[in-house]
Amino acid sequence: LFVDGKLAGANEAFPGEPDERLQVGCAKAATTGWYGVLDELRVSSSVRYTEDFTRPAEAFADDDDTLFLFHFDEGQGESAASAAGGEELVITDAGWVAFDPFTDAGQ
Question: Do 26 and 32 meet the contact criterion of CB atoms below 8 Å apart?
Answer without folding.
Answer: yes
